[in-house]
TrEMBL record, chain A:
One example GO MF annotation: lyase activity
Domain VOC residue range list: 2-127
Protein name from the UniProt record: Catechol 2,3-dioxygenase-like lactoylglutathione lyase family enzyme
A Pfam cross-reference name: Glyoxalase
Gene3D superfamilies cross-referenced by the UniProt entry: 2,3-Dihydroxybiphenyl 1,2-Dioxygenase, domain 1
Keywords, in A-Z order: Dioxygenase, Lyase, Oxidoreductase
UniProt cross-references to InterPro entries, sorted A to Z: Glyas_Bleomycin-R_OHBP_Dase (IPR029068), Glyas_Fos-R_dOase_dom (IPR004360), VOC_core (IPR037523)
Amino acid sequence: MRIAYTSVFVQDQDRALEFYTGVLGFVKKVEVPLGEHRWLTVVSPEDPDGAELVLEPDEHPAARAFAAALVADGIPCTSFVVADARAEAARLAALGVVFTQPATVLGPVTTAVLDDTVGNLVQIQSVNP
Amino acid sequence: MDEVFRALADPTRRAILDELTARSGQTLFELRVRLIENHGSGSSRQAVSQHLAVLQEAGLVVARREGRYTFLNLDTSPLEEFVRDVEQRWRPS
């Protein structure tokens, strides 16, 4: 058994694809029409055969309520590993990305939390040198 | 004044004030991670929310709603009156 996919619920698949590829830097892996929506995944260019992130429509009302409740408390829906969270946060902020938590040293890691523009907060983290 | 005495009487609430002093304007998520990392306090969301309610009653914490987020701000102005009151009331004659 292995983990091949993990999902984020997104408000709009086109805007999500734009943000996760154009801003965060992932690359599109699979795009298959599926009724009204698409099976749409991205991967890290550092690990193109690794786990795929599914950009999943937040069609279900419970998904929207869940996402909104997490955002209200500032809770990220997922977390991505970067080499240097401080540098990456600065790069993304320069691109206009909104942060609910700036790069902060918390114990052995540095983390930051950003708004993915499609309904979620996302954490980036790096291990402190 | 009773609200400030009550707010300061609990170590977790004092730790919350420590963390908001380090950075005002935190989400509940950031505050909870900081309490765990810096104070070894694994209080539940419910417990932290109750502590925040007490701090807000005392006017020491103000929750600011900004769009879809809520940020917790520190307001130390109630402490000025508190310190003045304590000094005047129990100053040895």
